[in-house]
């Protein structure tokens, strides 16, 4: 377990991609040129069609379920964790689409990616907090003790900090340094929340 990369998906070693709750980006600014302006700061700007904001990262389900089984010393099996987690995911509420805005680019993770830091309505932050509370309830039902420690330790979850920073990853920064980089404020439109890679929920194999 110690050799698994935190929060990452290596298609050569993982059977299933990570599961996240996210909202898709429907538009940035008044038109395509507003997004293309970010090429002044970003190398290999990502395609607009795939842009999204992650609300909760669960990781690959087989990895997550093995993490639970290991943490509980087998009191919850990986198979039982899978069944309960899939049912939990499919019962999550849906967040309606909303509008946000951004006026800066921030460095993400180890610095290889930067993203738009998004100002979101309070209702979106409340929804994200409710997802974290729901995750706590799931883990409690899976007999995980010291839940906060588990969340920050699980390689599948990949959490590095309990603080959620709303952002949309857009590409690799052109400039070196910690950022942030100020840009002209742009509006960002988001669609309703969805489970990324939902088609893999029933295909995961924790064995």
Task: Give a description of the structure.
Helices cover about 25% and strands about 30% of the residues. By secondary structure, the protein is α+β, with helices and mostly antiparallel strands. It has a single domain, classed as Cyclic Phosphodiesterase, Chain: A (Alpha-Beta Complex). It is elongated, with a radius of gyration of 18 Å. It starts with 18 loop residues before the first strand and ends in an 11-residue tail after the last strand. The N terminus is likely disordered.
Structure summarized in a few sentences:
The chain is built from 5 helices and 8 strands. With 207 residues, it is an alpha+beta fold.
CATH topology: Cyclic Phosphodiesterase, Chain: A
Backbone shape = elongated
CATH class: Alpha Beta
Q: Determine the structural class based on helices, strands and strand pairing.
A: alpha+beta
H and E order: EHEEHHEEHHEEE
């Amino acid at each position: 377990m110690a050799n698994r990369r935190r929060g990452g998906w290596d298609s050569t070693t993982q059977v299933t991609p990570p599961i996240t709750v996210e909202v898709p980006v429907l538009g940035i600014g008044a038109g395509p040129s507003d997004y293309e302006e970010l090429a002044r700061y970003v190398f290999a700007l990502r395609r607009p069609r795939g842009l999204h904001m992650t609300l909760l990262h669960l990781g690959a389900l087989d990895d997550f379920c093995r993490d639970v089984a290991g943490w509980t010393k087998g009191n919850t099996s990986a198979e039982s964790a899978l069944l309960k987690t899939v049912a939990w995911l499919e019962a999550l509420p849906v967040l309606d689409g909303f509008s946000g805005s951004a006026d800066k680019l921030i460095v993400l993770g180890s610095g290889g990616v930067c993203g738009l830091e998004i100002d979101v309505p309070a209702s979106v932050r409340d929804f994200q907090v409710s997802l974290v509370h729901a995750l706590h309830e799931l883990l409690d039902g899976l007999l995980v003790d010291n839940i906060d420690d588990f969340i920050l330790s699980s390689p599948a979850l990949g959490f590095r900090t309990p603080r959620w920073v709303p952002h949309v990853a857009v590409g690799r920064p052109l400039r070196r340094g910690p950022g942030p980089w100020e840009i002209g404020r742009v509006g960002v439109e988001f669609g309703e929340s969805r489970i990324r890679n939902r088609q893999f929920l029933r295909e995961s194999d924790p064995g």
